[in-house]
Amino acid sequence: MEEKKKEPSMNLSGSMSAEEKVEEAQSSTHIQPAKTIEETIAELSGVDNDQVADIMEQILDLAEYEKELMSADLQPGYLLAADAWLYSISRRSFFKLTAGSEILSIERVDDKKSHCLINSDVFEVSNDLIDCVGWN
Questions:
Q1: Full-model pTM
Q2: Alpha-carbon distance 11 to 44, whole Å?
Q3: CATH: 3.30.1890, 2.60.40, 2.30.30, 2.20.28. Which one for 77-134?
Q4: In 3D, which of 96, 106, 101 has the Cα closest to residue 119?
Q5: What is the CA radius of gyration of the chain?
Q6: How far apart are CA 61 and CA 65, in angstroms?
């Protein structure tokens, strides 16, 4: 009679067989597909996407922009045309100002001179030195 060859046993010391250990290793190292950044942020923040869309729509509402445009100051910008020594009405002294200084406000006194707010001081400026740069 032929005797069956015994297959070598794969049992290791312990209570689990080798097959059970292989199955456990495969199930524990199961790699999940990577999440996108958007999914991760949504998961962490718990914010509803519809709610976010509604908020963004409110922020970008054109009616709000129209109101702001209507209330905006619609005067052109002015600059000092050349370097000049100008008389400060508030400090009663002459100060040298450079060309390109922004004139914030103009009050015409007569055809030759104006009182202009430049920086934080009011100066008496010849109308020839006022340069209109338009609407920016």
A1: 0.45
A2: 45
A3: 2.30.30
A4: 101
A5: 40
A6: 7
Q: By C-alpha distance, which of 96, 103, 97 is closest to 79?
A: 103
**What ranges in the chain are assigned the alpha helix state H?**
18-28, 37-45, 49-59, 62-71
Is residue 131 within 8 A of residue 81, CB to CB? The reply is yes
Distance of CA 89 to the CA centre of its chain: 41
Q: Please write the tens of the pLDDT for every residue from 12-49.
A: 555 556 677 667 666 655 556 667 777 777 676 666 77
Domain ranges within the chain, ordered by starting residue: 16-72, 77-134
Give the residue from 112, 109, 86, 113 showing the smallest Cα distance to 99: 86
Tally Cβ neighbours within 10 Å of residue 79. Answer: 15
3-state secondary structure of 36: coil
pLDDT per position as a tens digit, 102-134: 888 788 888 889 898 888 889 999 888 888 887
